[in-house]
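Data card: per-record layout.
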Amino acid sequence: MNIIVALLVFSVIIIVHEFGHFLLAKMNGITVVEFSLGMGPRLLSFVKGGTRYSWKLLPFGGSCMMLGEDGDEEGEGTFGSASVWARISVIAAGPLFNFILAFVLSVFIVGNVGYDVPVLYSVSEGSPAQEGGLQAGDTILRMNGKRIRLYRQVSNYVLFHQGETVRFEYERDGKTYETTIAPEIIGGSYKFGISGSVYRERTNAVDTLKYSAYEVYYWIDVTLQSLGMLARGGVSLDDMSGPVGVVDMIGETYEESRSSGLFYIWLNMLNIAILLTANLGVMNLLPIPALDGGRLVFLILEAIRRKKVDPEMEARIHFTGLVLLMLLMVVIMFNDVKKIFF
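The structure for this 342-residue chain is written out next.
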């Protein structure tokens, strides 16, 4: 059951991503040769409207194959025959649809259970936070100028800014105050000695949409900051997970949620889906060859130069990027297996 749930989550995210490419391609008159879920040999397929729709053996990945996408064909209906801005819209649509999916799922969660307000539940005796003047019930407004709207932003700020002195702006009894606090190492990690509110505030229709947007922003921000930590060497291979690790995480979450009932299983699965779809959207926009972001780089260069980049050179660069990405995925997969079984 765990694997089925994980595959369903993956499948929805991938279908939405590829549907973004598919929809914009159709809108711009580009022929979609095949729209598929999965990789490898076809299990089921049918042709409709000139497009083959396929379900493939390996339950990871998916594709929206467009006529002439790799520059090997020309003429009406090919990818290259569309204007550069049309092609940019087609490539950007995949990540954009991931963010739209994250927003829609967030509306469901925030609309049902509200959002985690950035209110302090407790302040430890003798902690840096207490010495800095923070008290239980204070609402955190900003940390070093960064606007705080969810309590998770408070806890994650410490994670991504280890040992950094923070200027807190907070509200108490309708008045705004400021204090500067340096964290201390408590239990092996930097802490301020605060814990978040267990209260989730319910919202009206307008605030539901607003805080759903904040939820999407939160996950995009977490992904970007995690990439920053990776670039600085603050994240090791053991901290990274591929499809195997994600399936294991989904399975564990599913098992832990079962005792709370079906509603909480759905909430937790939706939270994971938001994390994954926002992560996929950000990762695909990175300027890495073979990813959407890498293709956008060449298209933006074409728009600036008003001249296409040599298709053969571009194809070689994307192929090299794809090989390197696949090698990285294999390394991460074996590391996931090692963490699970050893």
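Known properties of this structure: Residues 311-341 form the longest helix (31 residues). The CA atoms of residues 32 and 155 lie 45 Å apart.

See the next section for split statistics.
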